Amino acid sequence: MKTRDKILHTALNLFNTHGVPNVTLRRIAAEMFISQGNLNYHFKHREDIIEALFFQLMETFEEEKAKLDTEKMDFQFVLDSTRNGMEALFKFRFLMIDFNQNMRENPKLHEHFKQLEEVRRTTYLYSFDLAIKAGIMRAPAFEGEYNGLNERIRVFSDYWIASAEVYGEPVESTVDKYHNLLVEMFFPYFTKDSQREFLLKRL
Q1: What are the residue ranges in the chain where pLDDT is below 70?
Q2: What does the alpha-carbon distance between residue 88 and residue 179 come to, in Å, rounded to a whole number?
Q3: Is this entry keyworded Signal (predicted)?
Q4: Which pLDDT tens digit goes with each residue over 16-25?
C-alpha cells in the first residue's frame, strides 16, 4: 500500500473512532510512525484528507448507480443495492456522525455533499422507475409520490448513523438494523408479489 493510501486508511479509522475534531495531522502521523513532514508532502491540511476520503465515498455511489444499467432489476437487487449504499456510508461514518457540524465548518465539503446528494437522488428516482417497470414496485398513486419517498430517504440517510451513535447501538449490527428500517419504508410501495417476497425473507 502506498504512503498516500496508508494515510487515508489510518485517518479514516481515527476519524471514525474519535471524530474529526479530535484527530490532527500530528496524531495521524504518530499513528503511522512517520514524520508530519512526510504526511504534509501528501496532504497539507486535514481538510484535504477529508476531501480525499469523501471522493472515495462518491466513487462507491457512482459504481452502485452504474449497476442499474448492467444488472438485472429484481427484488434481491433492491435489497443488495440499498445495503451496499448504507455500508458505504457506514464505512465513512465520521462524515455523518457530526453531519451538521462537518457541513457548517467545511464549506468545500458541503458543496461536495450536495453533489453526492444529487447522485443519490437521481439514482433512487431512476431505480424506482426501473423497479416499477420490473413489477417490483407499484405505479405512483399520485403525481410526485416517489419524489416524496425520495425526500424521506434523504433525511433518513443523512441521520441514521448519527442516531445509532447517540443511542450507543452496537457497531456490528447497526447496518442490519437500519437497512431493515429502510426496506420497511419501501413496503407500501411494493407490489403484492414483492410484499410477499419481503415477508418470506423476514421469516
Answers
A1: 203
A2: 12
A3: no
A4: 999 999 999 9
